[in-house]
Write a structure and sequence with these properties.
Number of strands of chain A: 23
Order of helices and strands of chain B: EEEEEEEEEEEEEEEEEEHHH
Strand content of chain A: 25-35%
Largest sheet of chain A: 13 strands, mixed
Distance between the termini of chain A: 43 Å
Structural class of chain B: mainly beta
Helix content of chain A: 10-25%
Radius of gyration of chain A: 21 Å
Number of helices of chain B: 3
Oligomer: heterodimer
Number of strands of chain B: 18
Shape of chain A: globular
Strand order of the largest sheet of chain B: 1-4-6-8-10-12-14-16-18
Largest sheet of chain B: 9 strands, mixed
Shape of chain B: globular
Amino acid sequence: MIDPTVKSEAGTKSEKGIFARLNRDTLDHSDPSDYMEKFKKGISPQLVAHISKDKEEPEWMLHQRMKAYENFTRIPLPNWGPNLEALNFDEICFFAKAADKKGGYESWDKVPAYIKNTFDRLGIPEAEKKVLAGVGAQYESEVIYHSLENELKEQGVLFLDMDLALQKHHDLVQKYFMKCVPATDHKFSALHGAVWSGGTFLYVPSGVKVKKPLQAYFRMNAMNMGQFEHTLIIVEEGAEAHYIEGCSAPKYGSNALHAGCVEVFVSKGAKFRYSSVENWSKDTYNLNTKRAIIEEGGTMEWVGGNMGSGVTMLYPCSILKGRNARADHLGIAFANAGQIQDTGARVLHLGENTGSKITMKSISKGGGHSIYRSDIRIAKTAKNAISQIECDALILDPISVSDTFPNIKVDNNSATVSHEARVGRLNEEDIFYLTSRGIEKAQAEAMIVNGFISPIVRELPLEYAVEMNRLIELEMENSIG
Amino acid sequence: MTDFSLPFIIEHPNKRDFVLAKCYEEKQECYKLTIPAGKQLEKAIYIKFKPTTNDLNLNLIIELGKGSSATIIEDWCAEVKSPTIRFGQQIKCHANSNLKYVVLNCSSQETKMTEKRSSDVASDAKCHVYTYHFGSKKLDSRLTQTAYGKGAEINTDIIAKSSADQDLSFNCEHDYAEKMGSGEIGMKGIAQGKAILSFDGLVNIRKTGSGSTGYLKQETLNLSPDTTVMAMPGLKIDTNDVKAGHSAAVRNLSDEDLYYFGARGIEKEMAKKLLITGFLGKELKKIEAHKTAYESIKKLI
């Protein structure tokens, strides 16, 4: 379904690539944030009501937000995984607007210059011209730019800012919004339900195959910012699409919070790929919830790279509801100094002959802590279900840590589940092989790391594979010894 | 050998080769079996439990002195009918000692059993624990082996068959606290009827455990549509100079294997039995040298 010509070779590095010029300054750059003076920190029912009023939302959404806020105050922090007690909700700004343009501008020329410059540096407008069918760009709490190719508009594809979708496609949004990830699920889905703002709405009508990827990029700029974008994707019967999400934020040395939510509905025979390259700053708590419901014969593919954030807790979930539904999860996590990358996957097999495959790679360096966590459940109804899990971890120095905590529960005897994991360091023989051929040790190590992650990276379109490799290179700089 | 009554029977051709004493640890009554330093026991020590009370609470300490070696077989198959058993066990293997410890559990399917076992293994010592569980209505088994000395070797094999409405839950951890430790956890089981079978394993290599090698393997044959099978193979690795891995598999007998037998004129039920025997047979072979234990388990398989 995805155009094979946009697939990359493992380890590709193109100097001319859109993202090949990415450097630490690009990601850490911050714009002036005078607009923040108008916005208060902390969360309250008044703030929740204000967000809803500002967006001129229908009554049911306000009601839903207020119920979610109640849940947020009632549900405790998770009693497993990384310690989140240092996260101070009173120090986070939950809603801020840098520009006031509902639905975002339709041309980059109209976007305020300093915001446009930031996205220029990140290569988004250039990627739009060269490889994408549509782009959404969010800055702080609201979307500032959105576009979609006319041909797709004519085919009935909807790709717009979530706030605008609620106004223009009210019934469709009401039918699906937070039905896949209820606000009662955990503390951060409740928080999201209360203060969500911006995000992407994608609707692909029956039979429409979107060949080029669509992308949304989320940028937090101000200090202590919180971003809570909602992504709602509906892929109707027999339709196909690929959506890419990128994100980044400058580093300030004080906490930021990302608690987005992604809901994907894959209908009968449809196929959808969701790719993300996450590079939040290292003082961000990335507590995102991503989930898909897949109907009969549908396929869901999650491809993800987690490079940034101080603390990440992210486990994309696939609910294989219909018979012959399938899910593939591919992920890379890089935990550098001070980072905890707690990532993994959840798959719930409900339908007959459902299949899932999870491939995860993690790298720990400089005292970083990577954790793979998964939960595979095969229900009684999921006759002949098959699930295969593989995870590999590289620990680059003696002070770094890697944990693997899979959980498998099988309720019928026709299922086959297999799990394999390996943890180790770089192979000395491989390094010797390369260094004896004149390659510097650091470069040899970086090459081996690139080879290690290549099974995941090669699933990304070329430009994004370059971006992922570049981000890994940045993480590897001044590293191994 | 003892001047106190025992809640178990000890069998060995020469009871002077070890010392059995009553003890108190952490305010609890316990029994301590000590193999003196340097003593090499050729024959296995049989500890046969036959509780007569309805509520048995027992703690057993096994200590192997430096350079000693022994095989101990703990047998819960002698018509154990206690509805509730709480069993605690601590093994201490001093430097260069070598212990093979076999647990046979085919207690009545009315029994509810909770067991908490631990072993501390010193430098260049070896401790291999084999547990064969076929009994109990409900079992909560926790076993932790710690390689606290350099070059210690710890191995655990858990073999279980959960049938009818049995609920067997196993938790096993290997903790590598010193350099150059090695070992493997093997958890192999069969679930049938309406049984529940849960394997929870963890290989933990601490920062101080560089150069260690630890593996965990879980395999479950799930034979009935009404079973619940759980597998949780964990790794916790705090340093990079290690080799560690785990695998878990849950499956049924394959149709291809059954077809292979069928094509050779072997009935389906017989083919299943042969395949199950083959699945557990390798594990059974590990105790082939100990005839009594071997025969007991063979019958149960």
